[in-house]
C-alpha cells in the first residue's frame, strides 16, 4: 500500500523584530548604536549598507517598529500620494536604494521629511558615495548624511541567529546540530532563514524531530537548488 507524504502545512511562526530580539555583534554594533540614537540623528537621512544577507532589512524592521516608519518601495515612489500616506508619521524606509530608484522622487521624500524634522532610513549594498546618482541635489544630501556599514555575520553571530530562528518557530535543537549546520550552510542571514524554514518543513513532512540525517538531506537539497 502506497502511503502519501504528509502535507507540510505552514501554520506560521512569530518572527521576532523587537530591539531586544536583535542579535548585536561586532558586525552590526555601530548600526545598532545609530538606530538607538534616533531621533537624535545629525541629518534627515541615514544609510545602512553591506552585503546581501548581513541583516540590514532586519535592522530596518526593528527601526520601523520603533519609529512607526512608512515603508516605501524603491521602484514605486508615488510622490503625489506621499504626504497622504505619511499622515502624522515622520519617518520612512526605502530598501535597496542603490539598485534603481526614481531620483527625483527620492529627493522629494528626503525634502518632505526634512521639512517636518522627520527621518529617512535607506538600505543599500554600497555607501551613497559609490552610487551612480545623476541628480546633484540628491547626491549632495546623501553624502552629507551618515552612512554606516553592516558586515556579514561571523560564526558566533550565525550560531546565535540559528538558535533564535529555531526558537521563533518553537523548535528545540541541541548544540550538536547547530555545530553541524554552521560549516555547511550559506553564511548569511538570508541563508540561515531559508535553512531553518526548510528544516522545519522537512521535520513536519517526516513527522519526526530534527536530526543529523534529516539536516544532511535538507542541506543537500538546498545545494541542488542553488546549483
Quick structural overview:
With 227 residues, the protein is α/β, with parallel strands linked by helices.
Q: Indicate the CATH class of the largest domain.
A: Alpha Beta
Overall number of domains: 2
Instruction: Tell how many strands the DSSP assignment holds.
Output: 5
**Class of secondary structure makeup:** alpha/beta
Classify the oligomer.
single chain
CATH architectural designation of the largest domain: 3-Layer(aba) Sandwich
| DSSP helical segment count | 9
**Beta strand %:** 5-15%
Q: Low-confidence spans: pLDDT under 50, at least 5 residues?
A: 1-17
Q: How far is the first residue's CA from the last residue's CA?
A: 35 Å
Helicity range:
40-55%
* Main beta-sheet annotation: 5 strands, parallel
Which shape, going by the Cα principal axes? Answer: elongated
Radius of gyration: 20 Å
Element pattern in H and E: HEHEHEHEHEHHHH
Question: Could you please say which CATH topology of the largest domain applies here?
Answer: Rossmann fold
The CATH superfamily of the largest domain appears as P-loop containing nucleotide triphosphate hydrolases
The residue-averaged pLDDT reads: 87
Strand order of the largest sheet: 2-3-4-1-5
